[in-house]
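> forwarded from #structure-qc
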């Protein structure tokens, strides 16, 4: 609906693309919306600002943070970083109620979630403190006195937490919207700017908004000429645990009484019987529904000939239930040969429910994909990697040795491992000592076992020595390289692609740690890692984007927006669906909750009904509820109360009789891996200059880096280059601020002519301090090399500053300007270091280079800036800044400049080259181009079979 309306507005010239703001909730949804808009429009789709609420507010604060006293370079903290901030400053909170002596960090996460809920409700620390002061000590009533003490402790803790964030120039995610609302309320000039900027605002999944998000939208559209469209279904509001407020969509008509409502009742997915089942059931949430409140008709009408069906499969125990579910899938597929495995879905109320079905799917040869997100630190390859670092730090970590010996690149025989373990226990020595003794023949092993332990000892010895001088990341990469782990994964992409992504993510986490810590040793990383585990962080969640032909197993929440021919809803019993009401660990006092209207019924039950409504309406042809009489324990389980509610609202009756298993369906038994669809490499959806350059150099190298995402070892020269870029970015941001010529980020349309005689710039010492703060400390080969680069950077900046003082400074239009544009059916992305106004009022596009200066530019050298010129001529936002008159490479090494302007012939040739390159990538034409020059400096030479 949203994308079609955007296309309609642009095609009918009701708005320019840059006058439209579309807001949704996830980055994935944002990307899908952008792609869909691009499909519907021949040009200009990228100029529609499509964003999440948090992404939009982050962009606004980056442009206007100074207007409300925030630094414009605040660090955005994730949940773990917020936990660490509190833990490191726990004594400042003066906690008593929420600091048990035996476990003083127990409530940190709960408190942080509580503080973020405060911000979602736009409750300031001052609001909370003022409320706490209204509570008396209730003399004589111990319970009431304790509650008052608890509230006051929380109010004071909230104030301390917020001050810690401000003192450390940090924001948490809730701050992004919280401070943007504050900005709009306290700086009406800024609000007016955005009200003039947009003509249309469209909000998708409006039922999932919280109070602060809705307040943000109301501020933008109130008092201006913006036309607002919200799309939502209150019956699909299932994210209360994330702070979503169903009352927003119920309140919308009161806030905008003149708004026009359009009820979409045509359904092209499900059979009418399924639609009626869901619709009649959800009526039980009245009067807390939009349909009842507005007296509208939301009854869905099937636009297909499918009738649809539903039933209850009732077994004796979980094994029986699993057997019934599995064989029902097989029977349906046998009956209709056109059905694929991915036409079936098992939608679980909790991910843990899936464990009982997976063995049956394996046994019966049913391919499946389990889409439950799992933390990075729980993945096998990551655990192998961390075990090796533990082994390097401490040879006596027998559990680490055991894991390494069993990992794929060692795969010791069980008989050999048994001998080592037996000797270790009998002689009371560590497992690694037993391995060393086995090298001398004390423990008898097979020839394979001897080869394995020799390989292990050699690698451990080399990496232990390396760990005394080098950072943890370098040690880990050496292990991956020497053990053959990287080669194993990259040679078997069909099986291990997700594992490559896991290693890449681990490498990035270690790299981030090294950038922020003086001590980059293996021990320092392991200490930090233990702190992460203590905080409850098990790493970034990974949920595979499964596209193979397999039965989909996922949570109901994850299924929202998807559709299947047949849906199975398991564990349909009391206390499992609906679940018991679990309140948040620390609730916000009712007096501080700003939700417009609390439900008249039980909020938890109503949310669980909406969840079941979502599950049922994923199905096209059939819905099957499954349950067991006993899940273990002395007492049988009752069927879900929703069974009775479904029956009463639909005048139907489910059988309570235990269904017989029936004869076993004969099928060849295969593992899930053997029955899965053939793996296909996925190419990126967007392409940068560095990608195109990599492919031109060697397509096989491109495959390693951008298709397989094999982790690469960093280089000091790259760290130095990033340092210089970040330094100059911050320097010129300060120049913009000092001269009151601050640009409005994505929304700038014109730039006033600048008086260069009055330009103010930070001092040279300030520039050097910025350099020291921006310094990237990773990947240098030695301390000497690091010091040489540090000195070189200071020298370069001194020469740069001298040149600026001598020749005159300029105030850039913008720095680090991102762009995306379409070329045929390809999307090109990039980031321009700097854009200046020239004397004639046109644009100069500048790219910094820290490499060797060039006296003359080849056609290949010009490619990057030609792409930037094409972007400046294609993207409406950049085109509004002016005409490009010059492209400049600024070589920092000697402060020299190579400038040119791309001719029409050059830009057309570049477009043809881009099209040909990306077409080859999409065709997966990764033919290697081995050469001495290419292979010598290739990051993947040690795992490449084609190297020379």
């Amino acid at each position: 609906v949203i994308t079609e309306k955007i296309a309609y507005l642009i095609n009918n010239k009701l708005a320019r693309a840059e006058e439209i703001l579309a807001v949704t909730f996830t980055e994935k949804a944002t990307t899908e919306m952008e792609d869909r808009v691009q499909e519907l429009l021949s040009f200009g789709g990228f100029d529609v600002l499509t964003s999440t609420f948090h992404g939009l507010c982050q962009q606004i604060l980056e442009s206007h943070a100074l207007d409300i006293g925030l630094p414009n370079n605040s660090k955005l903290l994730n949940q773990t970083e917020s936990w660490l901030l509190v833990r490191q400053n726990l004594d400042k909170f003066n906690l008593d109620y929420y600091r048990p002596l035996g476990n003083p960090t127990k409530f940190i996460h709960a408190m942080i979630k509580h503080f973020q809920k405060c911000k979602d409700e736009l409750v300031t620390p001052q609001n909370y403190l003022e409320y706490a002061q209204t509570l008396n000590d209730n003399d004589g009533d111990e319970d009431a006195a304790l509650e008052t003490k608890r509230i006051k402790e929380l109010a004071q803790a909230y104030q301390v937490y917020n001050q810690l964030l401000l003192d450390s120039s940090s924001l948490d995610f809730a701050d992004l919207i919280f401070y943007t609302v504050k900005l709009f309320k306290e700086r009406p000039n800024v609000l007016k700017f955005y009200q003039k900027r947009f003509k249309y605002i469209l909000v998708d999944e409006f039922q999932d908004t919280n109070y602060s998000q809705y307040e943000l939208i109301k501020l933008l559209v109130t008092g201006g000429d913006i036309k607002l469209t919200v799309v939502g279904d209150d019956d699909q509001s299932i994210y209360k645990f994330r702070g979503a407020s169903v009352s927003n969509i119920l309140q919308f008509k009161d806030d905008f009484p003149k708004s026009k409502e359009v009820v979409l009742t045509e359904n092209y997915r499900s059979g009418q019987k399924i639609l009626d089942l869901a619709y009649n059931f959800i009526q039980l949430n009245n009067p807390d529904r939009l349909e009842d409140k507005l007296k509208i008709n939301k009854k869905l009408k099937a636009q297909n000939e499918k009738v649809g069906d539903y039933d209850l499969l009732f077994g004796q125990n979980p094994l029986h239930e699993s057997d019934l579910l599995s064989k029902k899938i097989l029977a349906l597929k046998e009956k209709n040969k056109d059905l694929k495995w991915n036409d079936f879905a098992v939608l679980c109320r909790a991910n843990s429910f899936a464990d009982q079905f997976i063995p049956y799917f394996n046994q019966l040869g049913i391919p499946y994909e389990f889409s439950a997100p799992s933390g990075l630190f729980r993945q096998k390859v990551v655990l192998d990697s961390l075990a090796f670092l533990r082994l390097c730090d401490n040879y006596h970590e027998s559990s680490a040795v055991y894991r390494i010996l069993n990992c794929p690149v060692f795969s010791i025989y069980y008989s050999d491992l048994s001998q080592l373990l037996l000797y270790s226990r009998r002689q009371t020595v560590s497992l690694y000592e037993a391995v060393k003794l086995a090298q001398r023949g004390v423990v008898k092993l097979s020839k394979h076992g001897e080869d394995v332990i020799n390989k292990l000892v050699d690698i451990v010895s080399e990496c232990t020595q390396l760990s005394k001088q080098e950072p943890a990341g370098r040690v880990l990469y050496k292990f991956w390289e020497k053990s053959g782990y990287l080669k194993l994964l990259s040679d078997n992409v069909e099986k291990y692609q997700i594992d490559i992504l896991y290693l890449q993510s681990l490498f990035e986490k270690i790299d981030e740690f090294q950038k922020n810590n003086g001590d980059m040793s293996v021990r320092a990383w392991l200490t930090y890692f233990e702190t992460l585990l203590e905080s409850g962080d098990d790493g970034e969640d990974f949920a595979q984007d499964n596209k193979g032909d397999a039965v989909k197993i996922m949570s109901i929440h994850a299924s929202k927006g998807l559709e299947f021919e047949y849906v199975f809803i398991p564990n349909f019993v009391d206390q499992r669906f609906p679940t018991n009401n679990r309140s948040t660990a620390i609730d916000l006092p009712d007096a501080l909750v700003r939700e417009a209207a609390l439900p008249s019924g039980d909020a938890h039950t109503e949310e669980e009904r909406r969840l079941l409504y979502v599950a049922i309406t994923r199905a096209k042809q059939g819905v099957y509820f499954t349950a067991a009489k006993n899940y273990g324990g002395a007492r049988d389980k009752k069927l879900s109360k929703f069974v009775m509610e479904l029956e009463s609202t639909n005048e139907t009756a489910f059988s309570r009789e235990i269904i017989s298993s029936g004869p076993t369906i004969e099928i060849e038994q295969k593992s899930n891996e053997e029955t899965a669809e053939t793996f296909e490499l996925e190419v990126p959806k967007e392409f940068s200059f560095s990608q195109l350059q990599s492919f031109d150099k060697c397509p096989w190298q491109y495959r390693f880096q951008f298709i397989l995402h094999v982790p690469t070892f960093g280089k000091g020269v790259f760290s130095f280059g990033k340092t210089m870029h970040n330094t100059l970015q911050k320097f010129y941001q300060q120049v913009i601020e000092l001269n009151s010529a601050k640009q409005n980020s994505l929304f700038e349309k014109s730039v006033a002519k600048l008086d260069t005689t009055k330009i103010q710039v930070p001092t040279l010492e300030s520039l050097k301090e910025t350099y020291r703060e921006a310094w990237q400390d990773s990947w240098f080969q030695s301390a000497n090399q690091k010091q040489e680069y540090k000195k070189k950077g200071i020298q370069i900046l001194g020469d740069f500053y001298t040149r600026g003082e001598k020749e005159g400074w300029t105030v850039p239009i913008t720095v680090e300007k991102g762009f995306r544009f379409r070329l045929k059916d390809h999307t090109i992305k990039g980031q321009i270091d700097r854009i200046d106004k020239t004397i004639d009022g046109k644009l100069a596009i500048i790219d910094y280079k820290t490499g060797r200066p060039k006296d003359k530019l080849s056609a290949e050298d010009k490619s990057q800036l030609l792409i930037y010129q094409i972007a400046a001529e294609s993207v409406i936002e950049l085109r509004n800044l002016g005409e490009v008159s010059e492209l400049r490479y600024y070589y920092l090494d000697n402060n020299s400049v190579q400038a040119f302007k791309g001719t029409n012939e050059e830009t057309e040739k570049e477009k043809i080259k881009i099209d040909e390159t990306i077409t080859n990538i999409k065709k997966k034409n990764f033919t290697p181009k081995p050469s001495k020059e290419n292979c010598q400096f290739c990051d993947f030479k040690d795992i490449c079979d084609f190297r020379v």
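QC bot note: Residues 768 and 794 are 7 Å apart (CA to CA). Residues 662-679, 741-756 have pLDDT under 50 and may be disordered.
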